[in-house]
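REQUEST
  id: r-88c1
  op: predict_structure
  target: RagB/SusD family nutrient uptake outer membrane protein
  payload:
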Amino acid sequence: MKSKILGLIAFSVTIYSCNKDFLNKYPLDSINDGNYWNSEQDLQLYNNSIYPTYIVGFGYGFGDATIAPYGYTQAAIAYGDVITDNAAPNTYSKVAANQYISHLTGGSGSGGWNFSNIRTLNLFLENFRRTKIPTATQNVYGGEVYFFKAWDYFEKVKLFGDVPWLTNTLTTTSPELYAPRTPRAQVMDSVLRIIDTAIAWLPAKGKEITDRLNKDQALFLKMRIGLYEGTYRKYHTELNLDGKKFLQAASDACEQLMTGNYSLVKSSNAAQAYNSLFAQYTYKGNSEVILTKEYSESLQMGVAFSRYFAQNLRHQFGATRNFVDEYLCKDGLPISTSPLFLGRDSIQLELQNRDPRLSQTICNFGTYCLAVGVSQGANNAPKPNIPGLSGNKCPTGYRLAKWFLNDPVDWNRVTNGMQAAPVFRYAEVLLSYAEAKFELGQCDQAVVDKTINAIRDRVGMPKLLITAIPTDAVLDGNYTKYCAYIPAPLLREIRRERRVEMAFENTRWDDLMRWKAGRFLEIPVEGMKFVQAQFPTVKINTDVYLSSGGYLLPYAKTLPNGRAFDEKKQYLFPIPVEDLTLNPKLKQNPGWEQ
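RESPONSE
  id: r-88c1
  status: 200
  body:
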C-alpha cells in the first residue's frame, strides 16, 4: 500500500487534541526524563510530529510560506522550478539572478543553516532504546528517524557542502557549537550509512503500519542521495572526490525498486496520460507513486493549492521558451532538425506535432481553463494574462497545465483543498537508473529500453536507439557556451528526458547544480512569440517588451542584463554572518565573504 501520509495528519491531530498536553508536558529539553520512552505509543507519537516537517507536499493552510534560502513557496514540488531555467516568475528570483544577500540580513539559523530539526531527531536516537518493547519494534521507529536524518543532512550538504555532523543533542556549553564544519566526504559517508540502516530497519512495502514509512521509500531516498553526490563529485572536479561509490549506490537502489512493485501509469489516450497523473485526490492503488502527501476534508486538514494554482497567484510565473524548445517533435527529432516542427509564429503552431507531454505541461490557448460560469478571481484562460492584461500575470505566456485540477469544488475549499501531492514517483527511478548506469559506463540499449523508452511509450513517443541518436546542435551549443563541456549524445538525451518528464516537480535546480550547469540560468529568458492580433489591447514597449525575434521579454526592464550565475560561489549557499561571528571556527563558503 502506498504511504499516503493521510493518517499522519490524523496522528498530528491526535497529538494536539486527544493528547493535547503532550508538547507542554514533554518539551524537548525534558522529554528524556523517566515519564517518557516507555512504550511503542511514545515512539509513534514522537515520530508523528516529525513526518509533516519533511513530507510537505503542497504545504498547509494557505501554503504561502517561503522556503529558505530558495525563496519559493511551501508547495516546493510544484513551484521549486521558478528559480531555474524552466520558469520565469513575474518578480524575478534573486537566487537565479545572483542577488541573494540574506546571509547578511538574516539572523543566526537563517537561510537553511538551522539544526533544530536535527536536534529533535538526535533526541529520539539517544532515547528510543529505553522503551520496553522488542528491539525489532524499536528498529522500525529508529528507521523512520534515520530516514529523516539522512534526508535532512542531504539537503544541508546540497546547500552548504561541509556541515557539522551532530550525533547527540547539544547544550549551550557543548564543544560542538564552536567546532569547524565536518568535511563533505565524511558527512556523506555518514548519510549513506544511516540511510542503509533505515532500509534495513524499516518494514517491507505492505508490511508497514498504514501510512508510515517503508523500505522502498528509503531506497528511493538512497537513490536520490547516490545520484546527486555521485554526479556532483564527477563534474565538480575541484572537490577531488570519487563519486563511483555513490553512483553504484543509486544504481543498486534503483534495481531493488525495479523488481515489480511499481510501474508507470498508462492510458489509452496519450493526450491525457501524463497530465492526469498530477491532478488527483488520492494515489491509493496508484502503481507509479511511491510516497505521497494527502489531505483530509473531514479533519479540515488541507491546503490552498488547487485554487491559487488555477489562478496562477503564487509567483505569477510562466515557463521559458528555452524549456519549451527542449521538447522533441513527435518523430523523436529536436525542433532544429525535424520537418514536423511548424515554427514559433504562434503558440498554437509550436505546440503541434510535439512530444505529447508538452501540451499536457504547457497550456495552449483555450485549454486547462476554469470551469464555465465559475469565477475564481484572476482567470488565466483561455489566454494567459501577459503584462498589459488584468489579473495575475503569466509573464512568458506559457501558462502551466501540469498540476491543474479542474474542480471548482476544490477551489472553493480554499485552505481545506484536498489535491494530493506525489512526493516520490517511479518515473524518477527509471530516469535515475539510466543516468547512473551511463555514468558507470554500463548503459546499453537494454537499459534504455526499460527506462527512457518505457517513459516515452506512455505518451506514444518513438524509442531512443543508442545507435541512431539524433544530433542537436542547439542544445550542444548551449552546453559549450554555458557549461564548457558537451555531454555524450546518449547522456544529453537522458538529461533531456529528465527535464521533460520531471518538469515542475522540483528536480531541475538540483540537476543544474550536480551537473555543474548553473550557467544555464544565463540563457536569455524569453517567452512565447507575441502575436498582436491575439492581444489587441496590449501595447508593445509599454506593456510588453519583445526580443529581436518577437518573443516576450519578461525582464526587459527589471533585469535588463539578464540573469547571472557566478560559478565561483553559487553552487553553494552562504552561512549567515551572525553564525560566523558566534563560532569563529566556521569559515564562509568561497565567494560569499563580505
